[in-house]
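Class, carefully examine what follows:
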Amino acid sequence: MVNLASQNDCMSLPVTEEFYSVQGEGCNTGRAAYFIRLAGCDVRCPFCDSKATWNAAHSTPANVADIAARAAGTGCRNVVITGGEPLMHNLAPLCEALRRQGLSIWLETSGAHSLSGSFDWICVSPKTARPPLDEMLLNADELKVVISNANDLAFAEQCAAKTRQGCALMLQAEWDSRETAYQLMFNYVLEHPAWRISIQTHKILNIR
């Protein structure tokens, strides 16, 4: 496996896109946030809606101080670092730059790589193709599992068993399977009320 973190000085990162929008899913749904989508992914889910991030060679390197300045310039106080798989990179310098701007930092990760950087909210969205590290499940503030069939519910419980007390447990339909997945999740939450349903509102609203 290629370790992208060792291929740069960590003061610049491969960025696929940056944009200011509203968080569309999970516990922070509806809150304004500046999104930093990093390139590079070794999880590569077949249902991924950000496949352009998979190859970091196709991205543009950006200086972490410049990224932080653009985020702060929106006037928003929340930043989401996502991917791809952002933890393929050393995120400590980016987090430090964002902290200097007084920003709250949220992470979206599969949990397949060790943590780097300091975050106010960590959302682990585990994938069966490359299961999450136990240490990442323990660090999760939110566990968000994509559901398309009953096997995914069993995987969700396996991951939840390794989270700490107070971690938010979320089920989210795989978009192309949503018609059947919604009913599956609805019934499951009624029987297992520790779980909540996450709806991808950004897709319903047709926003980024």
Q: What stands out?
A: Helices lie at 64-73, 92-100, 134-139, 150-160, 178-191, 201-204. Residues 34 and 79 are 5 Å apart (CA to CA). The longest strand covers residues 12-22.
